[in-house]
Amino acid sequence: MADAKKAAARKAGAKSRPARTGAAAGKPSSRRATPERGGRRAARKAATEERIVRAALELFERHGFQETTTKAIARRAKVAEGTVFNYFRTKEDIALHFFEQEVDHAIRTVRSSRRLRRAPLEEKLFALVQSQMEYLAPYERFIGEAFVEALRPASMLAAGARSWALRRRYLAFVEELIDEALPDRRPSALSWLAPHAFWVFYIALLLYWLSDGSPGKESTLAFLDRSLRMGVAALQESAT
Q: What digits encode the pLDDT tens for the residues 94-132?
């Protein structure tokens, strides 16, 4: 009789206990997919990518682009070589990522400046190029070798889809600045060619910059200033 009463009590207690939910019931915990955890994971990935890029740039500048291997980059970044390949297929991809950052920085510099919003076109273009040169300044040796590498017909630095996309984005921004400065300009061959001419000018200017031994690259900046004034004046004249 006593045993029957104990069994009944256990049964009643089981009914009164609340049902288990979540991880206690064998279901996956929602904590695993929280936005906070996703944000931390993305931050870690971004930090690893940045560490790989910085390690590569240091080696490109110190030992040269051709001589630097992905194994050396991984060792410098303190990651496995397979981790490098998880982010970048080749060292050319790392270089292109750096040039994309350079263009992003330059565009952001011009767009975020209140002073430049009402500035003349030549002043905006000067700020654009100056910010690029300042960004590239710590890596002059690598930039020079990148030019040589880009001369190779099959080089990803000049002929790949990613490099073409970067060039189009840069030219689109230059064209945007021209449209803002000359919204009512008359269509002409010069106005159509202006962004492309500016790209050729920028490449030639970088070569001049690489060989400029003047303090603070003053000769390059003076040449940039004179050239932009003449070029914008010619563009404005063709637009009237």
A: 999 999 999 999 999 999 999 998 899 999 999 999 999
Residue 147 has pLDDT above 50, yes or no: yes
Q: How far is CA 53 from CA 66, 89, 108, in A?
A: 16, 13, 20
Q: What is the rounded CA–CA span in Å between residue 175 and residue 167?
A: 12
Question: The pTM is what?
Answer: 0.79
The type of residue at 219 is: S
> Which parts of 140-188 fold into alpha helices (H)?
140-150, 156-159, 161-181
Distance CA 227, CA 116 (A): 19
Tell me the CA distances in angstroms from 21 to 27, 29, 31, 71, 143, one per residue in order: 7, 10, 14, 49, 59
Give domain limits for the chain.
Answer: 37-88, 90-239
Cα distances (angstroms) measured from residue 156 to each of 65, 72, 150, 217 = 13, 21, 7, 29
- Please tell us whether the domain made up of 90-239 is placed in CATH 1.10.357.10: yes
Distance CA 150, CA 158 (A): 5
Structural class in CATH, domain 37-88? mainly alpha
Q: pLDDT at residue 9 above 60?
A: no
The answer to whether residue 20 scores a pLDDT higher than 90 is no
With beta carbons less than 8 A apart as the criterion, state whether 139 and 57 touch: yes
Question: Between 91-112 and 161-181, two packed helices, what is the crossing angle to 10 degrees?
Answer: 10
Contact call for residues 157 and 92 (beta carbons, < 8 A): yes
